Amino acid sequence: MSGFSYKDIYVEDGKRVLEVNILPEKYCNFDCIFCPIGRSQNKADGQKYFGEIDSSLIELELMIENTKAELIFINSKGEALLNDKISDVIDFIKGKGLPVRLLSNGYLLGKDKYRKIADKCDEVVGEIKVTTEENYQKAQRPAKGYTLAEYISSMVAFNKQYKGKFIFEVTIIKDYNDDDESIHKIKNIIERISPDKIIITRIEDERFTKKLGIPDERFMEISNTILCSTIN
Q: Which residues of the chain carry a pLDDT beneath 50?
């Protein structure tokens, strides 16, 4: 395995955040048409062995020391849970006394094996991008047998037992979930999952904004509709 890769450190809520990618290339259980990383050459539904990680952990330790990181965000090229060493990576970071945030698309969180790994993290980010089964299959192109209903249920079940902070990211996409019916469905999904924090975002990648981008005014309107109805 060719080491981990990193983004420049940044400050969020007063904490220095270091993002680390633990996948050598894109591995995902989805193959979304609007993925900024590109198409999935490696669509996978189970963990993969990418080699030993001893040298990568030494490098990670140096990065933590050199950047004075206060939160490690595992944000990978695809689904980080597919790396069979992810549990070791999380344990290593926690052993340094640092909190861990994990980005997952959320589908695998309903399976015991992956739930136990995610439970170790202080924060977990799940996401949703479409609200109908047809669009889910067409636009997110998941692994065989995946359904939107199970996708949502996985995050509902995970968060019911999760002790950390569950962050739910909703991406608003033109002609996929920007109509009133879809917004209503999103609000219902949020209510079922009951996340600790909601992030409303949109397609920002220039390759996709012309076809799938949401204008500022409509985006603000949607964001306000969703957030105002879900704040307790």
A: 1, 232
Model confidence, pTM: 0.95
Nearest one of 85, 157, 72, 171 to 119, comparing CA atoms: 157
Grouping H, G, I as helix, E, B as strand and the rest as coil, residue 20 is strand
Q: What is the pLDDT of residue 26?
A: 92
Structure tokens at 36: 């900024």
Residue type, position 131, single letter: T
List of residues 6+ apart from 75 with CB closer than 8 A: 7, 19, 20, 21, 103
Helix (H) or strand (E) holding 15: strand 15-21
Which pLDDT score is estimated for 1? 42
| Tokens encoding 148 | 């939107």
Q: Which helix (H) or strand (E) holds 202?
A: strand 197-202
The tally of CA atoms less than 13 A away on the side-chain side of residue 144 is 0
Give the per-residue pLDDT at 42: 82
CATH class of 5-164: alpha beta
Q: What is the DSSP string of 118-175?
A: HHTSSEEEEEE--SSHHHIIIII-PSTT--HHHHHHHHHHHHHH--SEEEEEEEE-TT
- Alpha-carbon distance of 200 to 180, in angstroms, equals 16
